[in-house]
Design brief:
Elements: E1 5-9, H1 13-24, E2 28-32, H2 36-55, H3 61-69, E3 71-74, E4 85-88, H4 94-107, E5 113-116, H5 123-127, E6 136-141, E7 150-155, H6 161-173, E8 177-181, H7 190-206, H8 212-227, H9 232-239, H10 241-251, H11 263-270, H12 290-311
Parallel strand pairs: 1-2, 1-4, 2-3, 4-5, 5-6, 7-8
Antiparallel strand pairs: 6-7
Helix pairs in contact: 1-2
Bound molecules: nicotinamide-adenine-dinucleotide.
Nicotinamide-adenine-dinucleotide (NAD) binds next to helix 1.
Length: about 300
């Protein structure tokens, strides 16, 4: 790991967390960020992520200095040269991502692995213009990337077995939970399930069945707690497949199955009610700043992750 240089492209929400994770695991990390002002604040913001991890005993103060020392930052894509792995975390735009990887192919050696953190764009489409598609793969982190253990590893139609093996091994070595998604499918697994649940939750809200807070309470204190220990399929086995089959036979036909975003969601977006970043979404967020809320949520996740690790 110490001898492997890795490059993260884009120092936004995800790129900073990915860079922190890699450097915490002893990799030399170079970050390429094209926006000058974002670039200047990057080290400070990564340092804050480390401080937060340190306050829960996940990293010591001396390790923070060493980890920060392994991170370099520039706005020059040429600095991705000599990387073993390049992880792209730039905005979710197909043409932008394709053009970036085409440039990277000109810069990097033929054995560099290229990975995209796309939330759901097609791995096959992003890699379509590339010459070395066998070295291209999806590595989908969940926010915050340094804390949430899972990484979806998405195999493109040309991704080689060897690249899948190396990337899976790498994430296991740094104590992530990588899962290989064998086929490039929109939204992969996590976002398909997340969106199916969100579509139903928004529909319940729209129909006036309960408030946003009540719907969230039902999910958090029932499914949410259980889902940490049993996935939806394992839970079906615990409940009994005959029971599930019976409920499915009358309930499925009543579930939300619309194929476009709902009127409520579209209306909110049109009004600029975008959630925490605009001060209003399904909730009002005007009491606390965005940074405070995110820090508080991460602060709740960190000790939980520590406890889960202790449980093995
Ligand atoms: N935010 C999330 O919760 C989340 C979760 C999983 C996956 N993703 C995916 O990760 C990717 C990044 O998302 P984000 O939320 O970090 O975005 P962001 O907007 O916070 O950050 C993107 C950064 O990339 C920089 N950038 C743009 N073009 C660049 C280029 N050519 N070279 C270098 N830097 C460039 C921008 O200046 C910006 O700082 C997207 O594909 C997104 O769908 C996001």
């Amino acid at each position: 790991m110490e001898n492997k240089k890795m490059t993260v492209i884009g120092a936004g929400t995800m790129g900073r967390g990915i860079a922190q994770l890699l450097s915490q695991n002893h990799a030399s990390v170079h970050i390429v960020e094209q926006n000058r002002s974002a670039l200047e604040g990057t080290k400070q913001r990564i340092s804050e992520l480390f401080e937060s991890a340190s306050s829960y005993g996940l990293i010591s103060e001396s390790e923070i200095d060493e980890a920060l020392g392994r991170i370099t930052i520039s706005d020059n894509l040429e600095d991705a040269k000599h990387s073993w792995l390049v992880i792209e975390a730039i905005p979710e735009n197909l043409a932008l991502k394709q053009s970036l990887f085409q440039s990277l192919e000109e810069i990097c050696a033929s054995d560099t692995i290229f990975a995209t953190n796309t939330s759901g764009l097609s791995i096959n489409q992003i890699s379509e213009p590339l010459k070395r598609r066998e070295r291209f793969i999806g590595t989908h982190f969940f926010m915050p990337a340094d804390i949430i253990p899972l990484v979806e590893i998405i195999r493109g139609e040309e991704t080689s077995d060897e690249v899948c093996r190396q990337v899976m091994k790498f994430f296991k070595d740094i104590h992530k939970e990588p899962v290989l998604i064998r086929k490039d499918i929109p939204g992969f697994i996590g976002n398909r399930i997340q969106h199916a649940m969100a579509r139903e939750a928004i529909s319940l809200l729209e129909a006036g069945i309960a408030t946003a807070e009540e719907i969230d309470t039902v999910v958090r204190w029932s499914l949410g707690v259980r889902l940490l220990f049993t996935g939806p399929l394992e839970q079906r086995d615990l409940n009994g497949l005959d029971v599930h089959h019976h409920i499915a036979s009358y309930l499925y036909k009543d579930l939300e199955n619309r194929t476009e975003p709902s009127e409520l969601l579209s209306e909110k977006v049109q009004k600029g009610e975008l959630g925490i970043k605009s001060g209003k979404g399904f909730y009002d967020w005007d009491q606390e700043s965005q940074a405070d809320v995110l820090q508080k949520k991460n602060g709740q996740l960190l000790p939980l992750m520590k406890w889960l690790r202790q449980q093995g």
